[in-house]
Specification:
By secondary structure, this protein is mainly α. The chain is about 60% helix and about 0% strand. It is built from 26 helices and 2 strands. A hairpin with a 4-residue loop joins strand 1 and strand 2. Helix 5 packs across helix 9, helix 19 runs antiparallel to helix 22 and helix 24 packs antiparallel against helix 25. The chain is extended and about 155 Å long.
Length: about 700
Amino acid sequence: MSSVWTTTFKSILDLHQKAVITADSQSAQRRAVKKVRKAILAAYEEQEEDVTLPTSLKKAIKKYYAKILEDNEEAEELEAASRPREASFYKKTLSQWDVAQKLFKQEIDQYDKAEQQRKGLECSIKYRTGHAREWFDNMTTLQQQQVEFALKKWNKEGAPEESQAAYRKNNLKKTLEDFSKQIHRTMGCRVVMLVSHKKKASQTLSVSLHESEPQNAKKRFSVSSSGIKEWAATGFESFAEWSKTEFYPSKDEDPAGSDNEDDENGPVIPEIILDDDGYATLPVRDGIGLKGQHELIRNIFHASYKVCTGGTRPVPWGAMTARSSNYLERGSVPTGFVVQDPSHMKKREVNHLWKHWEHRAAAKQKLVVFCKAKVGDVRNNKGKGQSKTKSVEKRVNTLDSDEEDLDRPVSLNSSHFTQRTTQPAANQLKTTPDDVSIKDRYTFLESLSKNENYLELVDAIRDLAKLANQKPSSEQDADLPTWADWSWEGSYLPEDVHVSYDTLNASLNKLRTSPISGAPSAMPVVLGLGLLYRESKRVIEFEEDEADPNTPSYLPNSAFNLQFLVALDRAVADVLSMVVEHIERLTKEALVEDNSMDDEGEVGEKAMEHDAVVNQEGGRVGEDGQAQEKEQEMEKEMEKEQEKEQEKEQEKEQEKEQEEKEDEEVVQKGRKRRMPQASMSKSKKPRIEAEVRRSKRVKQPSKRAQM
């Protein structure tokens, strides 16, 4: 019965749901809950049916929305864990059936196995679709809500940004050309398109103009006349300005027609004020929604990173999430706080960080201070004694200097309107394996990639060489690719690796399965894996309009993709396990050798002690030799005499026994019979003991011989 009132007044609860859940403060949430309570009580008075309300309606309303918030968080976690990364998955509009198969793959598989066992069917794929449909048709209400949540998000956002970048690099140009040709062949149309996309490395835009190839005209439309050139240039700049607001929306003012929970004259995101050193001061966040607070946090971090790098590079959120202590000075964030992209921060995390900054601001400390920047982000031409422009108020813009870039004339021959480069550092491009000396090989390997498993592999090779007392030398293996050798002279990998995915995958398999017997045999394998990582980064970050003149022509259409990166990570893990096995084996062998050396040392010491004792007693043996010979002769004579005496005693005993037997035969009375038995028992015991003593007697030298 407790859920009857929620069903009756569901329309009111749904109407105020957004205001309650997205409230940025407790006071705002209390106000929203009061509105809901007031609306429900008003509707209750007009209700004809008898509906029982909870005793504490306000608590019941909060509990209802708390359950919704909990379900939403669970749906977000499930969506993030199940989201497909392949861009091709998002080509067509997704349906509930498509999304459910991704979200609940494990549940569907378990249901399929259970049904096949229950029906006695053989494990066959042909029954899976039917069983999956049965499970889909019987989803719970919570599961249906989770499917709806993921469906809306995936259809709206599409593939993850990194997947979009890789797919765009390989398919954008060809897709535009195919589309132009298709509508020309099927509909007889000509097309002029302005295309823009975000540039992940520098957080700027890339804008290009695509148009159909002329069939009868001599020139393309965009350059057919001077007036059209001006029109195209103006349209190019206008589209770039519009794309800027599309990809990097500004929170300073609400665009017309946007959905905003605040009133028309509600608060806007305040400007970030910088101090004389360029660090952000803490703004006021009253009345700002959660997304607005995310933007404030982003700008505060960005201002501090700008001071550290001397440029406008983006904050490396991914690297900071793994090792924030390497980048931030102590106290910049609360203890144990996980630094991540602000858009992923939840309300409680934002409040926790903001309260920490309030304490730092009260103590007149910088909010965030970077002690280290990402490799390649620090501007080389930044002077040590460069003076900072002192200004009380400076605005931190999301795109920084993009507004200045937009003021420059735009060339239609270029596909972007900023001149930032995102290529790897120059020393990496110019350095080839054959230029590296033996002592610098480990440093060169570490510079090829920042992948954690790969760096761990380089450290393992260094440890293996130390255990075996080997230098960083390298053995040539004819089965490995030719470029996986320290004599390779190329800055880029050969063309056949980029053109054919089969060749690329075969090269990776050779590196992964190459036998490793020590550090020399492992060095070319690690070198090859590092070169593949470096080449993958070049391909992913390649921008045609920013490419170096010496960039190979085959790089834009390379076979390197995200699938290969996953396979490369697995290969590194396999090689690392083999190297670790060698390290463990060498460690055990070293321990065994140490133990054996200790045992041999103890035996040697004992032998030396024994020899010393023998040497000391050797002199005594020589002196006593003659005396021992005399003693032996005396012992032999004594033994002969004792033997004769023993023979005489035995003869006497035998005579006594015979006499006793004769007496027993003659005497018939019990008394006469018992007396010889007693005398016999007394006489037998000493005889037996005497025999035992004679048989076990140890021969000793006589007293005369001892004297």
